[in-house]
Design a protein that fits this description.
There is one protein chain. The protein has 453 residues and is α+β, with helices and mostly antiparallel strands. The protein has 3 domains: 151 residues, Beta-Lactamase (2-Layer Sandwich), CATH 3.30.450; 81 residues, Signal transduction histidine kinase, dimerisation/phosphotransfer (DHp) domain (Helix Hairpins), CATH 1.10.287; 143 residues, Heat Shock Protein 90 (2-Layer Sandwich). The chain contains 8 helices and 12 strands. The chain has a 5-stranded antiparallel β-sheet. A 5-stranded mixed β-sheet has the order 7-9-10-12-11, covered by helices on one side. Helix 1 runs antiparallel to helix 2 and helix 3 packs antiparallel against helix 4. The protein is rod-shaped and about 160 Å long. It starts with 10 loop residues before the first helix and ends with a strand.
């Protein structure tokens, strides 16, 4: 037999992959934006420094020209710094574009004779430089200051290297932190899974909740609720099995006794008498088995799945009253119907009605009175079965809904399951059951009140 396995995926690996990918993307994007912003800011600072240097040199050159004239080369008293010419090259010319002064490394030819005032770019061989051109107020002295672009690229490169190294370290630390956090969260789930996996089939204790994060807590609580329902179901089945076995002993013992007596019957009449007793025992056992099966079908764990539909109790009573004639044979049976809309499940409610009428007929001496009615009061619909039997004392009313419970001294045959079935069906409909004494404290009145429609 070929079996297809569903591909499995790991939530832990997915979270780690997504979080790490987002971290790297955000870090890379942020580093790129920061680098562009820093580069733009540095270009502005470099340009500003270039302009300030040009104005300072221009003022010195203008002062020298005022003192000595422009016939002679201007001698600027500027202290030389190591490798100064690698970063700044400048030329000072007069109005006729004669070279008055230049620093070491600057060419003798003009940087750019037609360069406009302000910033521009100029090419010296393979070297591209940033050029700043300015004149004095009389336009007798011109200065051009050039800064090789390699200087700027070198500084930007060092900044990019530092950002990359620092960002990589941060990304590694963030990845480790993400890995630890995700592993810590899933460790709680793994501990719970191991704890549940090590249990025996009968160990349905709650899963420990200590240390569980708030996001995982609902799952563990739902698991504990499931374990609770399974425990209740198992306890219910164990009690049900034990009670059923205990109650079935009586009719089975009666059947066995009648069979043994029949074997020793001395006449046909005596045999017929024992056969009649055997039939009674078989009927009792059959009725008990039917009620046990009914009670098993009405498992409280499945009551939430019952589909309720809009209906009218008067319609249901009108359909069922013909079936009650055999149950209440010899009694005065009255049916009083009034409009009573509510939400019900018809088949289970038919069973409830038959059990109530059957109980009333069993415990009401012939020719007693049984009244079945329905209607509305206080905004809710009700179903009521009243009889003129011995009733139930207030002390016993709380126990009559227990399985196999029968009031002491009762001579009527029965299994003690009828009212248990009634209570179970009422719970399925979220209805309320009330037991009261009849008029003049005679008989019993059972009222089932349904939720407001």
């Amino acid at each position: 037999m070929r079996t297809e396995t569903t591909p499995r995926w790991s939530l832990r690996r997915l979270l780690l992959g997504v979080l790490l990918a987002l971290t790297l993307i955000l870090w890379g994007g942020s580093a790129f934006i920061v680098y562009l912003e820093a580069q733009q800011e540095s270009q502005e600072l470099f340009d500003q420094s270039l302009a300030e240097t040009a104005h300072l040199l221009l003022s010195l050159a203008e002062n020298e020209a005022t003192e000595h004239g422009t016939a002679l080369a201007i001698n600027l008293r500027i202290p030389e710094r190591p490798a100064y010419h690698r970063y700044l090259l400048f030329q000072i010319r007069d109005a006729q574009q004669r070279l008055l002064y230049k620093n070491g490394g600057a060419p003798s030819v003009a940087f750019s004779p037609g360069a406009p005032e302000g910033y521009s770019w100029v090419q010296f061989g393979e070297q591209r430089s940033r050029l700043y051109t300015s004149w004095n107020a009389d336009r007798t002295v011109q200065i051009q200051v050039a800064e090789p672009n390699s200087h700027r690229e070198e500084i930007s490169g060092r900044f990019f290297y530092k950002v990359t190294v620092f960002g990589t370290v941060l990304a590694i630390l963030a990845g480790l932190a993400i890995w630890w956090c995700v592993s810590r969260v899933f460790q709680v789930l793994q501990v719970s899974a191991n704890e549940v996996g090590a249990r025996t089939p009968n160990d349905l204790a709650d899963v420990p909740l200590r240390g569980a994060p708030s996001e995982v807590l609902p799952l563990l609580l739902a698991t504990n609720r499931l374990f609770g329902r399974v425990r209740q179901s198992m306890e219910y089945e164990q009690r049900f099995t034990g009670d059923a076995a205990h109650e079935l002993r009586t009719p089975l013992a009666a059947i066995k006794t009648n069979l043994q007596v029949m074997q020793r019957a001395r006449s046909v009449a005596e045999r017929e008498e024992f056969i009649a007793g055997l039939n009674t025992s078989v009927d009792r056992a059959s009725r008990l088995v039917d009620q046990l099966l009914t009670l098993a079908r009405l498992d409280p764990q499945a009551s939430d799945g019952v589909a309720l539909a809009d209906d009218d109790l008067a319609t249901l009573l009108n359909e069922e009253q013909a079936h009650w004639q055999s149950l209440a044979a010899g009694h005065q049976l009255l049916v009083q119907m009034a409009h009573a809309p509510c939400r019900i499940e018809r088949e289970s409610l038919r069973m409830l009605l038959r059990n109530l009428v059957d109980n009333a007929a069993r415990y009401t001496p012939v020719p007693g009175r049984i009244v079945v009615s329905c209607g509305q009061s206080d905004g809710t619909s009700y179903l009521r079965v009243a009889d003129s039997g011995p009733g139930i004392s207030a002390a016993m009313q709380g126990r009559v809904f227990e399985r196999f419970f029968r009031v002491a001294g009762t001579q009527a045959p029965g299994s003690g399951l009828g009212l248990s079935i009634v209570r179970r069906i009422a719970d399925m409909h979220r209805a309320e059951i009330r037991l009261d004494a009849g008029a003049d404290h005679i008989g019993l009145v059972v009222t089932v009140r349904f939720p407001a429609h």
